[in-house]
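Exercise 7. Given the encoded structure of a 152-residue chain, write a plausible sequence.
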């Protein structure tokens, strides 16, 4: 997200947001935040994503990843930023719970699938034995026990 959009979201002026970012540079590594260069801003302006550089506050904007958005909420001192920080943490906790719940369901589904597969194999084996018994019934068996002459 662009710094000016986050400033609106956190209820602070964009210049104050950029000020806090510069003061806390060590909290914003490259995977949390980066600054657009002139060419990137020109592309945004040419594609009508933004009307002009002046719309961005006259300077090259900072862009924040989801990690940077959370860190920014912790760095800023507005009431809204504090609320946003708490909400973001609550959302992460709910997402983790959701993933764990789905993981439990996935494990149970895999267990059921393996049981069904094993049952299928057992049922096929029973039918194979039954077919074998039916084939054998069609063939006459030799008499077991004492045999008399002339009888089979």
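Solution.
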């Amino acid at each position: 997200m662009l710094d000016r959009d986050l400033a609106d979201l956190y209820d602070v002026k964009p210049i104050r947001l950029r000020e806090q970012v510069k003061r806390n540079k060590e909290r914003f590594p490259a995977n949390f935040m980066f600054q657009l260069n002139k060419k990137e801003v020109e592309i945004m302006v040419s594609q009508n994503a933004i009307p002009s550089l002046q719309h961005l506050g006259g300077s090259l904007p900072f862009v924040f990843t989801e990690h940077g958005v959370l860190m920014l909420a912790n760095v800023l001192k507005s009431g809204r930023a504090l609320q946003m920080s708490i909400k973001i943490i609550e959302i992460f906790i709910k997402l983790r719970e959701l993933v764990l719940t789905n993981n439990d369901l996935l494990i149970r589904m895999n267990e059921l699938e393996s049981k069904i597969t094993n049952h299928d194999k057992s049922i096929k084996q029973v039918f194979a034995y039954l077919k074998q018994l039916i084939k054998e019934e069609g063939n006459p068996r030799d008499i077991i026990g004492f045999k008399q002459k002339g009888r089979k």
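Remark. Residues 3-100 form one domain. Students should compare their own answers with the one above.
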